[in-house]
């Protein structure tokens, strides 16, 4: 069924006729807004006032599905998603606002080796059982930004951003994990216009994360084991009847921005640093800190935009580094001592992730911040190096992805428009290495169930392709409020030899909504 949807999308894209290029579209403006104003990608909420966005928004609901064997073991075999999203840019006198709310109801089938909501937060202390099963998850996400110039000359602009995410998930088979998470981020910020061509920005980053994970076994006649992972294949095994784990994390940091512009050229530099500390505690009456994880986070980006006639040329380069250390706490004899003595608190595991990207965009402009078409070429790098120090072992993966996409915005005289896009990508894993071997009392259950299948996915070379089509029409002639329907389809295919049965994954999504 998914393949049929993907094959039909070119027919939808071929229905467009000759259009009038003098009109503008709300969905076109929303799509191109982050490209017109690169400050919107930064932590600096005051950037809303640098290039004010018109008062526009959209609300939509949709359904998505993905399936296939080309997946990591902690990802679902089949994932179904129903979502509701509403977002809007709003100007009020000199102030600018942005708000977005989203809700996702997810049905994730066949998740293995993970009992937390998100096993890919880079925290090595994941709790899992070997049974796996189907999860139901509800995810809420609220984001608000506000910005205003302090003076009429716009020499100083203040901003603030807040993002609050709540998640809950449950599995209905023993040992029946139940997880709750709360994640809040605060970003106070300012921008100072040093001159007509130079702007300096500062923003702070405060994040607080909590997750509670509990197990409640309903059938006490069966024996279930809980695996407390300690990084790169190492684990501690406990028999589970009922248990509780808490994750508690804090992140503090900030960023600096520098924008220089002259005539039709604009350059924006953004760099920042944050430090993150997260603890994993087991138990309720006398919780023990099982492990703590400290991570240094660095990021930098450079965005250059050149306006030439009716075209925009944009070059964007970015880099992120996550450098983490994990302490796997070991406890001694607890008889007569509260709490039990700590035997080993050395740093035993390290995680090192790098993400880099370079994008070139060629945009054919339309007036009023709209666009006619966009061509984008990208090179995206991802790398990881995870190590365990006693005994020594290492897991390394480096890959590049090369992407090319084209988006066309067709506008009609009766205020209707049609946006379609096509993209292709090639993922090339040029380096991968793993030398972990279980030692001591460690068995190979985690290696065979989690570590090796994950390495199989990470070392995959893939071909990716996708199509999307969006049609928008006004509620009545000349109205700015319009309805739209959008269909998307993607396919990933592994192109090198694989132990994965099918080595492909399909994605499809249908969305209906309103722009205003």
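-> sequence recovered:
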């Amino acid at each position: 069924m998914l393949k049929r949807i993907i094959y039909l999308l070119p027919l939808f894209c071929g229905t467009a006729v000759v259009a009038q290029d003098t009109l503008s579209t709300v969905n076109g403006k929303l799509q191109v807004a982050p490209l017109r104003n690169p400050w919107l990608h930064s932590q600096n909420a005051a950037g809303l006032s640098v290039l004010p966005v018109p008062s526009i928004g959209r609300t939509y609901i949709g359904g998505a599905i993905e399936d296939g064997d080309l997946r990591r073991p902690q990802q679902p075999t089949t994932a179904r998603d129903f979502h509701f999203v509403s977002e809007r840019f709003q100007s009020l006198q000199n102030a600018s606002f942005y708000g977005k709310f989203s809700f996702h109801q997810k049905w994730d089938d066949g998740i293995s080796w993970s009992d937390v909501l998100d096993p890919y937060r880079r925290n090595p202390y994941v709790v899992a059982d070997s049974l796996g099963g189907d999860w139901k998850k509800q995810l809420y996400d609220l984001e608000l930004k506000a910005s205003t110039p302090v003076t009429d000359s716009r020499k100083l602009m203040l901003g603030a951003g807040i993002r609050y995410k709540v998640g809950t998930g449950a599995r209905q088979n023993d040992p029946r994990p139940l997880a709750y998470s709360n994640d809040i981020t605060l970003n106070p910020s300012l921008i100072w216009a040093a001159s007509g061509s130079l702007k300096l920005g500062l923003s702070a980053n405060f994040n607080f994360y909590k997750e509670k994970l509990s197990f409640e076994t309903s059938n006490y006649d069966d024996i279930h084991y809980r695996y407390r992972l300690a990084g790169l294949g190492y684990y501690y095994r406990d028999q589970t009847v009922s248990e509780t784990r808490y994750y508690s994390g804090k992140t503090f940091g900030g960023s600096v921005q520098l924008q220089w512009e002259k005539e039709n050229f604009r350059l924006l530099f953004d760099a920042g640093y944050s430090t993150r500390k997260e603890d994993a505690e087991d138990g309720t009456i006398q919780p023990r800190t099982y492990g703590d994880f400290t991570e240094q986070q660095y990021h930098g980006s450079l965005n250059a935009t050149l306006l030439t006639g009716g075209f925009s040329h944009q070059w964007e380069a970015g880099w992120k580094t996550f450098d983490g250390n994990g302490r796997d706490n070991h406890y001694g004899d607890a008889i007569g001592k509260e709490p039990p003595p700590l035997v080993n608190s050395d740093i035993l595991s390290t995680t090192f992730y790098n993400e880099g990207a370079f994008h070139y965009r060629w945009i054919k402009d339309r007036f009023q911040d709209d666009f006619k078409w966009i061509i984008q070429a990208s090179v995206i790098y991802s790398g990881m190096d995870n190590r365990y120090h006693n005994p020594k072992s290492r897991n390394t993966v480096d890959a590049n992805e090369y992407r090319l996409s084209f988006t066309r915005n067709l506008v009609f005289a009766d205020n209707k428009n049609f946006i379609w896009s096509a993209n292709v990508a090639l993922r090339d894993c040029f380096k991968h290495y793993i030398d972990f071997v279980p030692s001591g009392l460690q068995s190979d259950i985690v290696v065979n169930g989690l570590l090796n299948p994950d390495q199989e996915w990470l070392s995959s070379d893939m071909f990716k392709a996708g199509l999307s089509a969006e049609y928008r029409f006004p509620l009545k002639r000349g109205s700015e409020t319009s309805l739209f329907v959008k269909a998307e389809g993607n396919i990933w295919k592994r192109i090198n030899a694989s132990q994965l049965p099918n080595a492909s994954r399909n994605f499809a999504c249908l969305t209906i909504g309103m722009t205003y």
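The first helix runs from residue 2 to 13.
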